[in-house]
Design goal:
Elements: E1 3-7, E2 10-12, E3 18-25, E4 32-39, E5 46-51, E6 59-60, E7 68-73, E8 78-83, E9 92-100, E10 108-110, E11 114-118
Length: 120
């Protein structure tokens, strides 16, 4: 059974911090790279952050650079998104996505999402 389960979402005030977690199971974690996506009401889903092997391989969308940090812990089969200096425009449902590295296949999995609301 393949599973990606997001957690850590909730209500936070502008300027606050939140850490999202993505727990993976049912596949070979080390053979996948991970991407956090988000979708706000009335907007299309967008890529927020991506990590291949380590934090040094990470890339971010311009609007979150310097504020968000993606990381992975292969021993725990988990991916994290540390969010700081949160803004109301960060409000969205955040999704975890796993994609197999080309040499290991072409699989793609999605979590169900976790709501993040930034408001005073």
């Amino acid at each position: 059974q393949v599973q990606l389960v997001e957690s850590g979402g909730g209500l936070v005030q502008p300027g606050g911090s939140l850490r999202l977690s993505c727990a993976a199971s049912g596949f070979t974690f080390s053979s996948y790279y991970f991407t956090w996506y988000r979708q706000a009401p009335g907007k299309e889903r967008e890529s927020v952050a991506r990590i291949v092997y380590t934090s040094s391989s990470a890339n971010y969308t311009d609007s979150v650079k310097g504020r968000f940090t993606i990381s992975r812990d292969d021993s725990k089969a988990a991916v994290y998104l540390q969010m700081t200096s949160l803004k109301p425009e960060d409000t969205a449902v955040y999704y975890c996505n796993a994609a197999s590295m080309p040499l290991f296949g072409s699989n793609n999995y999605w979590g169900r999402g976790t709501q993040v609301t930034v408001s005073s």
